[in-house]
Amino acid sequence: MLFPALADLMKAFHSSEIKRLNIFGNFRQVLKFTELFHFKNYSLCIFAIKYHDMNAFYALKIKEIIRETPQAVSLSFEIPLELLDKFSYKAGQYTTLRIPFEGKEIRRAYSLCSAPNSGEFKVTVKEVPNGSFSALANNKLKAGDVLEVHPPEGKFIFEPGTISQNYAAFAVGSGITPVMSIIKSVLFQEPGSKFVLVYGNRSLVDTIFYKELLELEIKNPDRLFIEFIYSRTREDNSQFGRIEKSTVNYVLENKFNDTEFKSFYLCGPEEMIQNVTGILKEKGIREENILFELFTVKDNGAIDINVEGETKLTIVVDDEEMTFSMDKNKTVLEVALDHDLDVPYSCQGGICSSCIARIKEGKAEMRKNQILTDSEIAEGLILTCQAQPTTPTLKVDYDDV
Ligand code: FES
Question: Is the CB of 297 inside a 6 Å radius of any atom of ligand 1?
């Protein structure tokens, strides 16, 4: 991989037509190149490195920042023509932003709220208490700033078909962001399909996309149906409370009792997702028709893995293999990052699935896992941000997933 990339770089460098190039992707390789060619001021002198790299981030310019609520903004990015393929996405997917912050690197995963066929690439960032990137996005970033952005990923997706279907979503707070992308895709790409949204917030003023949703509902009176639910304020044309069993019953048994839904999309805090999933299953909805995306998980959801001693850990990433000795109380991802390996990850909290690898030798246990199914675990897949080794040797492969 190194030499084709190097050839590209040198060709580009000697081309008089190219005045300005961009650094893309793996910083370790960029540093290798800049050292090799004595480009000491590489932070000013920006080069293009093109190679396949599952962990590549790309410098994208913010086209526009839109204030959605007092606590949330949407960032819309400009995608250069040469990156359109890499940044094409399915409704419901997320992207990861990589940001230098107080001498470290932080990564944050955000769902795309725009629709794939809209030509937009837009995420929404809600400011959270003591948040680092969320505070930056809400208060400091401006159009024209450049962020490092990972191509979209994720399995919480809607793929348009050729026949008309019915879909329902239960979303809370910023959990609306991937659901917004899915709603727009259903409305624009499956012309006869219907969508029922149950959307919980504390109050109307906190409701992300309130106006846009109402406009979509008015434009599609026979296809989009929205139940707004507020837990702190009483508003017209809405329910007071939270999404709970009675809400699900009201929607499925009362308002839409003669409607058969193809899929249910759940997005928001873990508790809501668990509750609604349980109720849907009681009603006979099959598990494969319930898709969910966690936005937060309960801290007390993790199990303690009591292991002592050291493990010989081998990590395969980007066709390179490295072996280390590790404390069994650490996770595989922590050790990979301690050794500066360019492995894929995003949330570091067992939510996003970016850090999946396959166990090739040995065993590991996950502190928590709401992402991988039993059959995926049986196949050897693990979330490396949650996985602690339980055998004297462990080999994991990030390339084979
Ligand atoms: S980094 Fe998100 S699940 Fe591991």
Answer: no
